[in-house]
Structure formats: structure tokens, C-alpha cells
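Review form for a predicted model. The reviewer records the input and the model, then writes brief findings.
Reviewer: anonymous (R2)
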Amino acid sequence: MLKYTIWRLINLIPILFILTFFVFIIFHFLPGGPIELMVPPDEVFDEEVRKALEKELGLDRPILIQYADWLWRALHGDFGESIFTQLPVWGLILERFPATLYLAVAAIVLAIVIAIPLGTVAALRKNTMIDYMAVGSSIFGLTVPNFWLALIMILVFSLGLRWLPSMGYIDPLHDFFGSLKHFVMPALVLAVAPCAIATRMTRSSMLDELNKEYVYTARSQGLPEWKIIFKYTLKNALIPTITIVGLQLGRLLGGTIIIETIFGWPGVGLLIFEHINARDFPVLQAAVLLLALFFVGINLIVDLTYRLVNPRVELS
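Model under review:
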């Protein structure tokens, strides 16, 4: 396993290089730029002022030179300063990342707690009302846009019933129970799609396992049904579900921009949204790199988890 882990980590180097290169190029070719946003709209834009600002920010150099300079500094842990706030980029991101991680992990845990039992029961009660309800709810979860669901929940639970706050964030380390009120709606919204996918995958995998010979053999030997389901069948059926859950967690870490913006959740997603509008290239580049690192890291953890669930799996 150690050899496999080292091999995977080495393979991450070209992936991250290619990703950061294309993201850097895309950001710099977006319409507009930080220079235009730094000049008040009621002032006449002087070309000399533009050139002076571009030289000061290093934007007058060729793009490849800018990327090489950024990459060299990033390898030494220096991601520069924000163009607008003049604060260290890494500090801004680390300040926001715990909120995003808290929300994403809470959403994926909520999805697992619902999806695995629901998918298992649906497989055991195939073609019954429980199965139809599980499949129908998973289809709804896959098709409903999460931003629409977020707005509906705000209208119902915040503006209508006044049960939950519509926006804001409280650090759970300072006030855990107070933070629950703020994270319930965004966590539920983010959990809907992963829950639907994991439910369908668990149900499908369980149906495949229930039709295999070892299940019939175990039943013929008189083993209790609960032992067959929970000790053998479910354990094997969870392998593809683990893949889905891991990928969904990585997606949630990078896909919370809309939800964090709607709920005013001060995470990396909201930070990216704010600095996309400002064309703050250093912040955007570092944020994307951090999310990419976590995404590929989660994929590696998922692969290593296979051995814990099923020791017969060989990593090569």
C-alpha cells in the first residue's frame, strides 16, 4: 500500500501542474481585469495610469512569465497578496476554508446517514412502496437545482415559519448549538444530490450482491438473514458507494459557491465569488489549487479505503 500511495502522489504533480496552468490562462483571458475595477467609474481612464498599475502588479509581462513566477513562488509557499485587500492570499483562504470544510463534511455525513439505510431497505423491499418512494426521491434529488431548493427553503423556513435564519455563520467551536441553526438549510441543500446518487448506487449494488451465489450458500447453511445482509452483502455493496461518496465530497468542496453566496456562508466558495467579480487573480489561483489538492487527496483516500472495506482488493 505504501508503494501505491507514493506512486499516486507522484502522479499528482503533472495533474496539478496542468490544472493550475489552464486555470491561470483562463482567469487572465476573462473580459475585463483588476485594473479597470480599480479606477472609479466617474474618472477618466488614463493610459499612463493603466501602464503604471500593470507594471506595479506584474500584469505587463507575458502570461507564461507570469505563470512561471507564480509557480515558483507557490512552490515556496508564497501565493502573493490580494490585489484589492493587500492581505496575504494564503491567510485569506485558510481563514475561510474551515467554514467550507465544516459545511461539506456535514452535508456528506447527512447524505450517508440517509442514503445507505434507504438504499439497503429499497433493495431488500424491491418493487414495493418503499422501493418506489426511495427511487422517486432519488430522482427528485438528482433533478432539482440546488439553488432553487435553497431559495424555497429560505421562503418557507426563514420568511414564512421563521424557524431558521436565512443567512450567517457561527463558529461551532464557539457556539455549537447556535451554529446548528445556521448550517441546517445549507447542509440539507448540499446533501440532496449526494444522497440521491448514493441511494441509487447502494440499491443497485445491493441488488447485484443479493443475487450472487455466496448469498444463496449462506442461506442454505442456515445463517441469520441479518448476518448475511450486514456482515457480507452490505460490506461488498459499499465499495462502489464509497467511490461515489468520495467524489461527491470533493465536488462539494469546490461546488459550494452558489450555496455559500445564497446563504451568506463565509467559506471558500463565497471568497471565490467575491474575488471573481474583482478579478483578483492571486486569490482565485490559490483557492483553485487548494480545492484541487483536496479533491485529488480525497480520491486517494477513497482508493485506500477499499482495502479497509474489502481486504481482497489489490491496489496496483
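Findings: The chain has a mean pLDDT of 80.
Further findings: Residues 96 and 271 are 7 Å apart (CA to CA).
Recommendation: see findings above.
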